[in-house]
Write a structure and sequence with these properties.
Length: 166
């Protein structure tokens, strides 16, 4: 029964996403991507609860980790849908993260690309938000924001567990 309900929800979401995308000319070879998606937190937790009974090993660890995640925003621009304004958009997002007291966790900057990962913690040192920004000059832009409730020792435990499975 759980699998049937999951399939129905995923099918409805897929149909909604497919209908929201503009139809392209079939003769046109468009290799571009414009993707915006918001995943509500209750859906993430619901899927984690459903999958719990059926998984073992590394997958079970991932599902336990999912229980600490909330809503997610994903934005992808690539190819023809990438605009020159994305350079400015990346800088605006980074400035906004600085104003909102996000802490840089990782930063990789090369001539062609820039990757930023920042977190926001509360006064109890619990990670409440994770933001990942990836920008390849003149090619693509990816923005991911996850609401979560993670303690640093939980993240360390997850990394140790995943490393054990590798």
């Amino acid at each position: 029964m759980k699998n049937l309900i999951s399939f129905m929800i995923l099918a409805c979401l897929s149909i909604g996403i497919a209908n929201a995308a503009p139809a392209a000319d079939p003769n046109e070879e468009d290799e571009s991507t414009k993707f915006n998606l918001w995943i509500p937190g209750f859906l993430v937790k619901w899927v984690a609860d459903m999958m719990d009974d059926e998984l073992e090993g590394e997958e079970a660890v991932a599902v336990d980790f999912m229980r600490n995640l909330g809503s997610m925003n994903i934005c992808i621009r690539e190819g023809e849908k990438y605009a020159t304004e994305m350079d400015n958009k990346m800088q605006r997002k980074l400035n906004r993260l600085d104003r909102r007291d996000y802490t840089p966790l990782m930063s990789v900057i090369t001539d062609e690309e820039r990757v930023e990962m920042q977190v926001r913690t509360n006064k109890h040192n619990t990670i409440k938000r994770v933001v990942v920004l990836v920008h390849e000059d003149s090619e693509s832009f990816v923005y991911l924001k996850m609401h979560c409730k993670l303690k640093p020792d939980e993240v360390g435990q997850l990394l140790k567990t995943v490393e054990k499975f590798d």
